[in-house]
Specification:
Structural class of chain B: mainly alpha
Helix content of chain A: over 70%
Distance between the termini of chain A: 62 Å
Shape of chain B: globular
Number of helices of chain A: 12
Number of strands of chain A: 0
Helix content of chain B: 55-70%
Number of strands of chain B: 5
Largest sheet of chain A: none
Largest interface: A-B, 48 and 53 residues
Low-confidence stretches of chain B: none
Order of helices and strands of chain A: HHHHHHHHHHHH
Oligomer: heterodimer
Number of helices of chain B: 23
Strand order of the largest sheet of chain B: 2-1-3
Distance between the termini of chain B: 18 Å
Radius of gyration of chain B: 28 Å
Number of domains of chain B: 3
Mean pLDDT of chain B: 89
Chain lengths: 307, 614
């Protein structure tokens, strides 16, 4: 086994790329859970976001011709964020307004994300598993050989930004208050329901962003089940990162590294590919079991609030 | 005062329903005497037909429709007036029953009109005929009137609230179906050409109706019926698995992984353990349960020991199980750090599949159970009969009754097997359905669930854990150990689902194959919620989804709509049930339900006293 620089550089770049969707989703999950709503629907929302981005870009290409349209991928990103937010809104309405069990309501959305894309794909492309490949992917920014999708930079920029929002703004204070002690926040005049809606929808927008990255940044089409448990791994990373942006940065980098390692090891004779693919999932289980120890979720997470 | 307000509300509700009915009568076809391939139908409506390719089939008379239309209008008028009479609920009962009769009349007239044309012809001229949405709307409005009459008579709301375990899932299913209908309307263009917007609407509504007719068609044809039982078998197991977790306060999303482990274990025993049938088959089934159980117990232990949430862990274990599964059957040679590892499991060839299960370890096909050797066997009916007799006639403790029931089953099976039976032959459309003994195993699993959860101390503790974990622990339940046990049992049930595929050849071969549809583990969530975590409910819900999945194939074949429509319907059902069907909260909250029931009791008593005083 030769650990030359080329291998390491590829590993580093791959780690950054693998971390990006995890980071978006985990930060999203953080906003949702800090407001007191568990959102395991993020997995499904990633799929909806990816589907939206791929289909929107492809449809525009079909209408306008393939020629380079620099604005088109951004259009895809925006629509993925919108759809992500809307799907999260469904989860929010059902679990906040109708006080549903948050895990069941989110599971319903995940189930929907397994079936609904096939209907859409059959409608547009006549097959149930993947969309047509697009030409206008997200661009690559950066020096030759180290060029990365702008969304990668955005993901890492979001870390300090969400730290600032969460801990240095009145909005962040309210969001945390609503998740820790909704009665107290309510007494002080904070609209508990509104804060929770905002938290959940924000998580959906970010997960939609992650989906857009997968579909038109990482690949150039939507493939059925392309999220492959990413949303759940992101939630584990969020727990491991103790619901804190910096902790989440660290833990998603760990998971991103595990995935990147798995990818780099594929096709080598070190370990069989089928087993290596399971690597990030094993790490998740181990991390949740062994290192969780002192991490404490927001006190009111998962509980519907009643005025 | 309250009575007057009730009257007005009832009147408005009937009026609203009547409005929708009238609209559907105007826009939807009343009957479809003939349907072309591809879905376009000859649509009959009293306001004008839609006739593809020049007119009605020769000799068909649509005179009955006009007659029926005037009768229906008169009925609707009477129904609308009923709430404003002195005894509104009684009037509505009559109107409701009249509606059912009217529907029956429609059905008979339509069948007669079709038979008249088909009788004379050599090959039936009219094919794929059925009533249309307009007629079904008559039936629905009749039922709606009956429901309103019941709800608005004294104690009526309590009647509904007490049955909330049925009301919420059924209402959610109706809502999901409605939304599914909208989706069909959006995703699929009309099959025929329309001259007016009313005709276009008629085609659209017929398309939606036809989709649902196809989805439920397995109910009325024998091979579809068997196929629906076939697809229901694994759903029963996984539904029970999820339901057991819910009862114990745990959310088991790990059924797919547990099923995979069960399948691997069943394959290992079924392929490699030599021995006679009576030994190998039970061992293979047990191995599936054990492996699934252990895979389920793992996240249970992780939760009990480390507080790691079972939802994420069970999901992760699904992916790990899938990798393990592929590792075993996709190749026989692997490189580990330069060394080569040889595995014996993969069958030679391009496809990822195991060797065949030995004949001794196979679960028999349904024809071998119902009629071994072509002679109808009395073994199963007699086993059922003696089992029930043993259970219900013994007047001792529960343990004795179950024991005698089981003895009755065995005795009946042996006795029935010895009796000679008449020879029967099944058509190829029935024998090709791969329904097998795993279905009986699923029925046993339902019984096990019922007895364990509702009739034993262990089950009582389990339910206590689900309702109030702290109180249960205070009451002496060892919470950690119980958690592991619950997840073990849930995993074992999911693992048993694998016997249907691997040992029973539920898809096409007696092997472990890459095409193992382990995602039925996720469908178990919908089944458990739809069945409200009761064994009877899970059985019925699994069958319902079995019907829809079977029908989904027809929808795909005939209309070109993806079969995933059924998956979407399932997901919507889960979502709506989670939201309590968007019904008032006394349908989901037991305390509020009790409040309503008490209030309604008082109202009923008041009404009775008032009656007596008069």
């Amino acid at each position: 086994m030769n650990l030359d620089t080329a291998f390491l550089a590829a590993l580093l770049l791959s780690t950054l790329r693998q971390t990006t969707p995890l980071l978006f989703t985990a930060l999203g999950g953080m906003f949702s859970e800090r407001s007191g709503v568990v959102n395991i629907a993020l997995e499904g929302i990633i799929l909806f976001g990816a589907l939206t981005a791929a289909v929107v870009v492809e449809r525009f290409e079909a209408a306008l011709g393939p020629g380079p349209h620099p604005w088109l991928p951004w259009m895809g990103v925006l629509s993925a964020m919108t759809v992500g937010g809307l799907v999260a809104l469904v989860h929010a309405v059902v679990s906040i307004r109708y006080r549903a069990d948050q895990i069941i309501s989110a599971t319903a959305i995940n189930l929907l994300a397994l079936g609904a894309p096939s209907l859409v794909l059959t409608y547009f492309y006549g097959n149930a598993t993947s969309s047509k490949e697009v030409v206008n992917r997200l661009p690559l920014w950066g020096p030759e050989g180290f060029a990365l999708s702008p969304l990668v930079y955005l993901a890492f920029l979001l870390v300090p930004l969400s730290w600032w929002v969460l801990f240095k703004t009145p909005f962040g204070l309210r969001l945390r208050a609503v998740g820790e002690h909704p009665e107290a926040a309510d007494t002080l005049g904070v609209n508990v329901y509104r804060m929770r809606y905002v938290g959940v929808v924000l998580s959906g927008i970010l997960a939609g962003l992650a989906g857009a990255y997968l579909a038109i940044g990482f690949l150039n089409q939507f493939v059925r089940g392309m999220s492959a448990g990413l949303g759940f791994i992101a939630l584990a990373a969020m727990i491991f990162g103790k619901w804190h942006p910096l902790g989440i940065l660290f833990s998603t980098l760990l998971f991103g590294f595990a995935s990147a390692l798995a990818i780099q090891l594929q096709g080598t004779e070190i370990l069989p590919a089928v087993l290596v693919q399971a690597f990030p999932y094993v790490v998740t289980v181990l991390v949740l079991a062994g290192l969780i120890g002192r991490s404490r979720p927001p006190a009111a997470v998962g509980k519907p609030y009643e005025k | 005062m309250g009575v007057l307000k009730d009257h007005r509300r009832l009147g408005v509700l009937v009026l609203l329903g009547g409005g929708v009915l009238l609209l559907l009568w105007y826009l939807a076809p009343w009957a479809v005497p003939h349907r072309l391939f591809g879905g376009e139908g000859v649509l009959l409506n009293p306001f004008g037909h839609h006739l593809p390719q020049g007119g009605l089939p020769p000799g068909y008379s649509d005179g009955w429709l006009r007659l029926l239309f005037y009768a229906s209008l008169a009925w609707l008028l009477l129904a609308l007036l009923a709430p404003w009479t002195k005894a509104p609920t009684r009037g509505l009962y009559w109107a409701g029953f009249a509606g059912l009769l009217l529907f029956l009349l429609t059905y008979l007239l339509f069948q007669a009109s079709v038979a008249q044309v088909n009788a004379g012809a050599e090959r039936p001229l009219l094919r794929r005929y059925s009533l249309g949405l307009g007629s079904y709307a008559t039936l629905a409005f009749g039922l709606y009137l009956l429901l309103l009459a019941r709800v608005f008579s004294p104690g009526g709301l309590a009647f509904l609230v007490r049955r909330r375990g049925l009301v919420v899932p059924v209402f959610s299913l109706l809502l999901a179906s409605l939304l599914g209908g909208v989706m069909v309307a959006v995703l699929k263009e009309n099959p025929g050409e329309a001259a007016s917007w009313r005709e276009a609407a008629m085609l659209k509504l017929d398309l939606i109706t036809y989709t649902y007719q196809l989805l439920y068609s397995p109910l009325v044809n024998p091979s579809g019926f068997l196929q629906s039982l076939l697809l229901a078998t694994p759903l029963i197991f996984t539904g029970l698995s999820v339901a057991l977790g819910f009862r114990g306060g745990l959310f088991n999303i790990g059924a797919p992984g547990q099923l995979i482990l069960g399948a691997i274990a069943a394959m290992l025993v079924g392929v490699y353990l030599p021995g006679p049938r009576w030994l190998v088959l039970p061992l293979a089934i047990l191995a599936a349960a054990l492996a699934g159980g252990l895979w389920g117990a793992l996240p249970g232990w992780l939760k009990a020991r480390f507080g790691a949430h079972e939802v994420i862990n069970t999901i992760m274990l699904n992916y790990i199980a899938a990798s393990l599964f592929l590792f075993l059957i996709s190749a026989n040679e692997y490189k580990f750090f330069g060394n080569t590892l040889f595995l014996p499991f993969k069958y030679p060839g391009y496809e990822a599949r195991s060797h065949e299960i030995r004949p001794e370890a196979r679960i028999p096909h349904w024809t071998d159970l119902v009629a071994p050797g072509g002679e109808l066997s009395f073994a199963l009916p007699l086993a059922l009969l003696l089992g029930l007799l043993g259970y219900f006639l013994v007047r001792r403790s529960l343990g004795h009754r179950v024991l005698f029931g089981l003895l009755g089953v065995v005795a009946g099976y042996v006795l029935g097997g010895l009796l000679p039976g008449p020879a029967v032959a099944f058509g190829p459309d029935l024998t090709s359905v791969r329904l097998n003994g795993a279905f009986l195993l699923a029925l046993f699993a339902l019984l096990f669930f019922h007895f364990y959860v509702f009739r034993t101390v262990g089950g009582y503790e389990l339910r206590a854990m689900g309702l109030a974990p702290k109180a249960a622990e205070y009451g002496g339940v060892l919470a950690g150990r119980k958690m592991v046990l619950i997840m073990f049992l849930a995993g074992a049930l999911a693992g048993l689902a694998a016997t249907h595929y691997v040992l029973g050849g539920g898809i096409d071969e007696y092997r472990l194959k890459q095409s193992l549809p382990y995602s039925v583990g996720f469908d178990g969530i919908a089944v458990a919620l739809m069945g409200q975590n009761t064994p009877l409910g899970v059985g019925l819900a699994a069958w319902l989804f079995g019907i829809l999945l079977t029908g989904g194939l027809q929808v795909n074949l005939q209309l070109g709509i993806s079969r995933e429509l059924v998956a979407v319907l399932q997901a919507l059902v889960v979502l709506f049930i989670a939201a309590g069907g968007f019904l008032p909260r006394y349908f989901t909250d037991p305390l509020r339900a009790a409040e309503v029931e008490l209030k309604e009791e008082a109202r009923k008593r008041e009404a009775e006293e008032a009656k007596e005083a008069r």
